[in-house]
Amino acid sequence: MTLSKIIFLLFCFFITLSAYADEEGFPGRAKYPDVPYISISDFYTGYQNNDYVIVDARSKFEFNVIHIKGAVNIPVNSDDFFTEINKLAQKTDNTIVFYCNGRRCMKSFKAAVKSKLSNIFVFDAGVFEWANEYPKKSVLMGESPLHLDKLISSSKLKEHSISLGEFENLILESVLIDIRDLKERRGNGLFLLADKSAPLDNTRKLDRYLNRAIKENKTLLAYDNAGKQIRWLQYYLEQKGIKKYYFMAGGAKYYSYSESN
């Protein structure tokens, strides 16, 4: 084999490796190969030119915490998603761009597939990469431009996440809420009626227990289904000035796993 051929093969190998690594960083692209996606730079160019209708496919609570400025919220998990997205599509000739939390969040891809529309893109880098790159075009807790120092770090979330044993030891002296939706909760909570159902999509009920914790100067304890929704609640707690709060690391699924082992 000639040296030039070896160099050519190595070049092809590294190009393939680079492409593979890129796809590894965006797993949705491999999982949904027929769904077109858009880079953050191309998305921003089109955004500035008003080329796109932007749809946030996450829950209303997540949207209210942080979203791309100008986006509309049509949760992919809502019962009327298909109806609402098609109403929107009928009002515009612009391309619809779906987004969600980030590279490993599949809600935007699921929304694209569920919509059955052809004139679409998925922005799979997600809202946090957008916010860090374009804070003036982002909204955090109702305020824009977004101030990057108000984004809650993963380390701060970790500071307020405690083990199952630590969580249980605090229950008697705390206000305990289960923030799972009714489908996830499926009846009673995990802690023998000590916890109160306060789904994130019912802010009136949620506020009732948060205000109780404030009034009685008690620690607020909260858990979700798999440790993913507490990050959104944390923004809400910080905005309300609640400092004494802890989350159960891993959520209800971890609790169930621990109980069976």
Helix content: 40-55%
What is the chain-wise order of helices and strands?
Answer: HHHEHEEHEHEHEHEHEHEHEHEH
Mind telling me the CATH class of the largest domain?
Alpha Beta
What is the mean predicted local confidence, pLDDT?
90
**Major sheet description:** 5 strands, parallel
Note the overall shape.
Answer: elongated
Number of strands: 11
CATH architecture of the largest domain: 3-Layer(aba) Sandwich
Task: Please outline the helices and strands.
Elements (H helix, E strand, L loop, with lengths): L2 H23 L1 H5 L8 H9 L3 E5 L3 H6 E3 L3 E2 L7 H10 L4 E5 L7 H9 L4 E4 L3 H7 L4 E3 L13 H6 L1 E2 L1 H7 L3 E5 L3 H4 L10 E2 L5 H13 L3 E5 L6 H10 L5 E4 L2 H9 L2
Parallel strand pairs: 1-3, 1-4, 4-5, 7-11, 8-9, 8-10, 10-11
Antiparallel strand pairs: 2-6
Describe this structure in words.
- This protein is of the alpha/beta class.
- It has helices at 3-25, 27-31, 40-48, 60-65, 81-90, 107-115, 127-133, 154-159, 164-170, 182-185, 203-215, 230-239, 251-259, and strands spanning 52-56, 66-68, 72-73, 95-99, 120-123, 138-140, 161-162, 174-178, 196-197, 219-223, 245-248.
- The protein folds into two domains: 25-150, 3-Layer(aba) Sandwich (Oxidized Rhodanese, domain 1), CATH 3.40.250; 154-259, Rhodanese-like domain (Oxidized Rhodanese, domain 1), CATH 3.40.250.10.
- Strands 7-11-10-8-9 form a five-stranded parallel beta sheet. A four-stranded parallel beta sheet has the order 3-1-4-5. Strands 2-6 form a two-stranded antiparallel ribbon.
- Strand 8, helix 10 and strand 9 (196-197) form a beta-alpha-beta unit.
- It is elongated and about 55 Å long.
